[in-house]
Amino acid sequence: MEVKKFTLITGASMGIGKAFAFECASRGMNLLLIALPDDGLEETKKQINLRFSVEIITLAIDLRDHEAVRSLYDYCIQQNLVVNMLINNAGMGAGGKFEEISHEIYTDMLHLNIRALTMLTYHFLPMLKQHAPAFILNMSSMEANFPLPYKSVYTGTKNFVYAFSLALREELSHCNVKVSVLCPGPVLTNSDGLKRINAVGNRAKMIMLMPAEVAKIGVNNLLKGQGIVVPGKINWTIVKLMKLFPTGLKMKLLERLFRVYTDH
Ligand SMILES: NC(=O)c1ccc[n+]([C@@H]2O[C@H](COP(=O)([O-])OP(=O)(O)OC[C@H]3O[C@@H](n4cnc5c(N)ncnc54)[C@H](OP(=O)(O)O)[C@@H]3O)[C@@H](O)[C@H]2O)c1
Question: What mean pLDDT is predicted for residues 73-98?
């Protein structure tokens, strides 16, 4: 009997994660969708089911919790759910002067952006290997390529995701589990995001993308086996150009540009 395979997407109730869910459903993939307990997940499921006939399981889990990832893995084993694609999308950020953001926010950010992503990869890897060809897409950010003043911890977490993904990709190159790291610039996901984009001004608007575009580019490149994915031609060019700048000068320019975050 053929086993039913699922794509596990974290943070699937809104924003880019929801767009990933639509993108994967449009390609006939069954979905295991994770987000915090609220109505968003069920709404996403309903909307997808109106357009695509794939199986969708939703689970409300707080991935900041220490035991959450292990419980999610145990649930999959108990229910005989096979995951052959893992999209580690859930993440949170905060902008402002380092010392003015609460330590609770930093703790949540580190737990969600780093620990949950790492442990999901760790627990599901044997299953992915067993059901190869399999895929892992880790959500970093364009900012992983240049540290941003006033978003220092967020940028640090995305740097972790970037480095971890590239290193793991090489380790797994012999076993048909493809790893990609997605590095979007600004994406218009919610009203807070719009405020941040407006604060930085026209430069941010020029490189802004919609969640559906990012999800499509992400999944396309993951399936093609691309390692680093920077959606958008301008964004890709900026990343390349930034590498040519001396670090000191680059950091001074970025500090000027992102000082606006201290007013919001
Ligand atoms: N938006 C951008 O401009 C941008 C740019 C580059 C990279 N990224 C990265 O892309 C990813 C998605 O960003 P987004 O803007 O789409 O985010 P978003 O709109 O804020 O959505 C976040 C998603 O993650 C879920 N989530 C939050 N905390 C969680 C937790 N503790 N446990 C489980 N699920 C949790 C949310 O669930 P609820 O709905 O239940 O709260 C929601 O589904 C993040 O990793 C972000 O860093 C975003």
Answer: 97
Residue 58 pLDDT greater than 70, yes or no:
yes
Domain count, the chain: 1
Residue 260 burial (10 A CB sphere; 0-12, 13-18, 19+): middle
| Two structure tokens written together for 254 | 């970025």
Q: Where are the beta strands (DSSP E) in 62-211?
A: 82-88, 134-139, 177-182
Q: Encode pLDDT of 192-229 as tens digits.
A: 777 777 776 777 778 999 999 999 999 999 999 999 99
Identify the domain containing residue 230 by its residue range. 5-263
- Indicate which atom in ligand 1 lies nearest the CA of residue 190: 19
Q: What is the CATH number of the domain that holds 12?
A: 3.40.50.720
Give the distance (Å) from ligand 1 centre to CA of residue 63. 12
Q: Closest by alpha carbon to 143, among 56, 210, 235?
A: 235
Nearest residue CA, atom 44 of ligand 1? 91
Ligand 1 atom nearest residue 16's Cα: 16
CA distances, 140 to each of 29, 51, 87, 88 (Å)? 23, 29, 11, 9
pLDDT category at 1 given cuts 50, 70, 90 is low
pLDDT above 70 covers a percentage of the chain that reads: 99
d(CA 23, CA 107): 31
Atom index in ligand 1 nearest the CA of residue 38 equals: 40
Contact status, residue 23 vs residue 214, Cβ threshold 8 Å? no
